[in-house]
């Protein structure tokens, strides 16, 4: 048998005996009094019992008073839980997700029909502006150009002849006018017949018609020159289309057309991209688009962990009809061509900072007009409603604007009270 449990039981029994049976003596000993005999103990016992009864009554009255006060407090307002919140500065940035895009990307296509004569260039090759990508078979195009040039020369040769005919017609007109004038004067003096006058008039009209015909011939010759010149230009342009050149410095994203392949208008020769400068393209929600400005600094972290910096160069004025977001472009230098087209990027754009309250999402509620906001405890312990501006949404809460610098925001029970109702708040620490 163990000794310690027995000793523990004995000590507990003795303690209970003195606490219950010898309570008066124990109290007297605690007050420093001495009890000499059983009578004195008995005499002291009676007032002690009376005193204890009085103390118990006073304690009961005190408890009842506190309970009444608590009931009165409970009945004075609706019990809610509020969060004492102080506005804090949030970082001046607009966060969005986007991807990289080449500053230039062109699919170089054929403008004529012919077969490829040049060896293909492989994708990934560096090309300069004006480099030959695809050379096409000229066919009969040189002969067409020579024919057009011959027609142009023939048309130009006819110009002096047409001008000579015009000069001749004008001279005949002048002669006919002189003859007509002489015939008219002789006819007035009776020295010429009416027949001679009529003949002179007919000759003058014929000379006028001859001048008109000569002018028309000269204009026709000039038109022939213009038509021949146009044919020469078209033939030269057709020959120029046989050499498909790189439009700018860049990289080949695809192989050029294979030797011997038939090219038709619109057939792809090669795809050229330029990556020395690259774009970061993202979409900003309409609630934050006014915070982004042209020239604002921006930085981004690519999917491979690389960080880059650039400036905002474009903000769309038209929202996407499906997502209601606005396109933003950021130009980033890429001299080493390390950034590729189509990489995912987390973009942060510098913007004007502001102060806001960080609150749980459950604190948001609607008023009777359907307006989004929060309910707060006013200084007179009544409920007030503040419309809010949703500045940022995070996993653990939201950043809200539109509230005073200090606000006691109701986070529990806000849906069971309205503005003006008295409340009895219990305050919650921000760290909770």
UniProtKB/TrEMBL annotation:
Task: List keywords of the entry alphabetically.
Answer: Coiled coil
Q: Is Coiled coil tagged as a keyword? A: yes
Matching entries from InterPro entries are given as: Beta-barrel_RND_2, RND_pump_MFP
Coiled coil (residue ranges): 145-186, 218-245
Question: From what superkingdom does this record's organism come?
Answer: Bacteria
Domain CusB-like beta-barrel stretches: 283-352
| NCBIfam families (alphabetical) | RND_mfp
Family assignment from sequence similarity: Belongs to the membrane fusion protein (MFP) (TC 8.A.1) family.
* Protein name as catalogued: Efflux transporter, RND family, MFP subunit
């Amino acid at each position: 048998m163990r000794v310690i449990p027995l000793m523990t039981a004995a000590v507990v029994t003795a303690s209970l005996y003195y606490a219950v049976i010898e309570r008066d003596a124990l109290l007297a000993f605690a007050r420093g009094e001495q009890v000499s005999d059983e009578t004195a103990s008995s005499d002291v016992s009676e007032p002690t019992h009376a005193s204890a009864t009085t103390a118990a009554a006073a304690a009961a009255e005190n408890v009842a008073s506190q309970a009444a006060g608590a009931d009165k407090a409970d009945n004075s307002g609706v019990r809610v839980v509020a969060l004492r919140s102080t506005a804090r500065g949030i970082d001046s940035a607009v966060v969005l997700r986007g991807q990289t895009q080449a500053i230039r990307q062109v699919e170089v296509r054929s403008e004529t029909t012919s077969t490829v004569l040049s060896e293909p260039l492989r994708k990934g090759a560096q090309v300069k502006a004006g480099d030959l990508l695809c050379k096409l078979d000229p066919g009969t195009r040189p002969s067409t150009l020579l024919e057009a040039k011959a027609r142009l020369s023939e048309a130009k040769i006819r110009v002096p002849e047409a001008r000579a005919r015009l000069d001749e017609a004008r001279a005949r007109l002048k002669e006919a006018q002189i003859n007509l004038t002489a015939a008219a004067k002789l006819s007035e003096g009776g020295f010429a017949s009416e027949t001679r006058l009529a003949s002179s008039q007919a000759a003058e009209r014929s000379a006028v018609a001859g001048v008109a015909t000569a002018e028309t011939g000269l204009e026709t010759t000039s038109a022939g020159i213009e038509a021949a010149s146009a044919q020469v230009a078209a033939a030269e342009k057709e020959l120029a289309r046989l050499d498909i050149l790189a439009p700018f410095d860049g990289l080949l994203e695809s192989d050029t057309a294979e030797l011997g392949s038939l090219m038709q208008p619109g057939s792809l020769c090669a795809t050229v991209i330029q990556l020395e400068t690259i774009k970061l393209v993202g979409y900003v929600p309409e609630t934050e688009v006014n915070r982004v400005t042209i020239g604002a600094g921006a930085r981004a972290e690519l999917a491979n962990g690389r960080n880059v910096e650039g400036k905002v160069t474009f903000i769309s004025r038209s929202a996407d009809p499906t997502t209601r977001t606005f396109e933003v472009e950021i130009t980033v230098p890429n001299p080493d061509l390390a950034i590729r087209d189509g990489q995912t990027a987390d973009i942060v754009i510098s913007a004007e900072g502001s102060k806001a309250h960080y609150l749980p999402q459950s604190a948001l509620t609607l008023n009777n007009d359907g307006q989004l906001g929060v309910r707060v405890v006013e200084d007179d312990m009544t409920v007030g409603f503040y419309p809010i501006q949703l500045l940022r949404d995070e996993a653990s809460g939201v950043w809200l604007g539109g509230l005073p610098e200090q606000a006691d925001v109701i986070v529990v029970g806000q849906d069971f009270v309205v503005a003006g109702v008295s409340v009895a708040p219990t305050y919650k620490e921000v760290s909770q």
